[in-house]
Design a protein that fits this description.
alpha+beta; Ubiquitin-like (UB roll); 5-stranded mixed beta sheet; two-stranded antiparallel ribbon; 3 helices; cytoplasm; nucleotide binding; Beta-grasp_dom_sf; nucleotide-binding; Mopterin_synth/thiamin_S_b
Length: 90
């Protein structure tokens, strides 16, 4: 029996604060899995944490490469996906 495909999601800044985690393992419900739907998978695991807004303004990286268009990126398992929250400075 083949093992289920998994990804590691890394949380930074507001996403880490909201989830209380710096990283988390997810089993992909299907492969290929569109990166554009990962936010809904994360928020379903962490309801009522305000993640919809945080993830809606965040950028994504897959295996340390920034993603320009999440709609065109698919996950197959084994990837490390980082949630890059916007930051402000002064």
């Amino acid at each position: 029996m083949a093992s289920q495909p998994t990804i590691t999601v890394l949380y930074f800044a507001a996403a880490s604060t909201a989830t209380g985690l710096t990283e988390e393992l997810f089993i992909l419900p299907e492969t290929p899995f569109p990166l554009s739907t990962l936010a809904s998978l994360i928020t379903s695991r962490h309801p009522n944490k305000g993640l919809e807004k945080i993830l809606g303004t965040s950028s994504w990286s897959v295996n340390a490469e920034m993603v320009d268009d999440p709609e065109k990126t698919s996950l197959r398992g084994g990837e490390e996906v980082a949630v890059i929250c916007p930051v402000s400075g002064g």
